[in-house]
Amino acid sequence: MKLAAGAFLAGATSRLLPASIPFRYFGAAVAYHLLAWIALLPDAGASPRFTGGLGWRLAALHLVTLGVLVMSAMGASLQLLPIATRQPVRFKRAPAAIWWLYTPGVGAIALGMGTGAALLLVAGATAVAVALLAYAALIARNLLGAKGMPAVTAHCWVALASLLVTLVTALSLACTYLGAPLVDRGTALALHVAFAPYGFMGMLVLGLSYILIPMFALSAGPDVRNALLSCAFGVAALLLAVAAALGVVPPLARSIAIALAGVAVALHLLLMRTALRTGMRRGLGRSFRLVRMAWALLVASLIVALGVALGAPMGGIATLFGLLVIVGWLLSFLLGILQRIVPFLGAMHAARGRKPAPTPSALTAARPLAVHFWCHVAALALLALAILTDGARLAFAAALVGATGAAAFAVFFVGVIRRMRRQPPPSQARVAQIA
């Protein structure tokens, strides 16, 4: 995988999907990001000790996980993997069809959870499951003919396998509200908590990072052996978590699984640190402050997960774990990367038949991103403090600040769309033609 960013991007334009495909996924993620914070407002005061159950807190959680995290990952992987594997998408209409099934399905899940409508929840979960299975088939078809980047491919295969576990456990938990669970609720919940954030989203994020971080830092690709070793430790951690959830091994195995996950994360972060240190582009700005913060909170999530496994006597520790892994790590990372990838893809699409071609920085409005950064950090800190002190007012303030930041991020996204569609002034176009 020792490829410079330039080599990776060579011929990438020919494998770009139509702009409407990735941008509809990213646009839906931006909308659900705002809706998630708004959905938290009615029950924000009770969120510091949230442990499950239907209501708007559960709806807000899944608007983040399904509506923002998975939606963004689907859009990014559908575009990046064909470039990385040097193969075009075989079924051109499939990504749009998946979006049309998945997006309203997420809305139905959130509405069903918020209002307590179990049938609507199960209907939405079924639509989402079918869409994700179609997405998995599309990605698997692309990975089967992959050329190069074995570490990326390995992580993606693990993510797809984890997705199947996530879907089975999610459907089982949804059917619990109808009185017909597929698996015992405790077992299903333990597997879902391990495989949804760490197995599916986590391995997908780690794998795509081996493309994105070197690409934006303009560095060589990471060492393949260490990247594959990180993946192997991650797989071992997930398998041990399965054995612990099924009761095949003693409960202490959960702590060992977390330790193995820690080794996987340590190896990954060393590779990311090397990519950033050796890259030709050093000033990566505010977006990578979010990325670095996300990496730190990933480590923190494992430490808190160990506390949960060992039964640490701390009120709200399970809620704190969820905050760190979902909002602290995954959401912070994806929002940081979206700030880079949205203008980057916008510039690549806008460059077709347009002179002079716009740069990503020319498509980016800095002020909304500054507002979003500080609001996101403040909301995360307020929620953590609310959990530690069981503070209802702090949680409500966090939801308000988070919604403000999400609205600012939406302004940034809409600005990119408008600028990439804007034609250059006639004078600039004439100068470009003469030159």
Strand content: under 5%
Please trace the helix and strand order, writing H or E for each element. Answer: HHHHHHHHHHHHHH
CATH structural architecture: Up-down Bundle
Number of domains: 1
Radius of gyration: 21 Å
Ends apart, CA distance between termini: 38 Å
Q: Major β-sheet, in short?
A: none
SSE topology:
Blueprint: H1 5-9, H2 20-40, H3 56-84, H4 94-115, H5 118-144, H6 150-176, H7 185-217, H8 224-245, H9 252-278, H10 285-309, H11 317-350, H12 366-389, H13 392-421, H14 426-434
Helix pairs in contact: 2-3, 2-4, 2-13, 3-4, 3-5, 3-7, 3-11, 4-5, 5-6, 6-7, 6-8, 7-8, 7-9, 7-11, 8-9, 9-10, 10-11, 11-12, 11-13, 12-13
Overview of this structure, please?
- The chain is about 75% helix and about 0% strand.
- It has a single domain, classed as Up-down Bundle (Cytochrome C Oxidase, Chain A).
- It is globular and about 60 Å long.
- It is built from 14 helices and no strands.
- Helix 2 (about 20-40) packs antiparallel against helix 3 (about 55-85) and helix 7 (about 185-215) runs antiparallel to helix 8.
- By secondary structure, the protein is mainly alpha-helical.
- It has helices at about 5-10, 20-40, 55-85, 95-115, 120-145, 150-175, 185-215, 225-245, 250-280, 285-310, 315-350, 365-390, 390-420, 425-435.
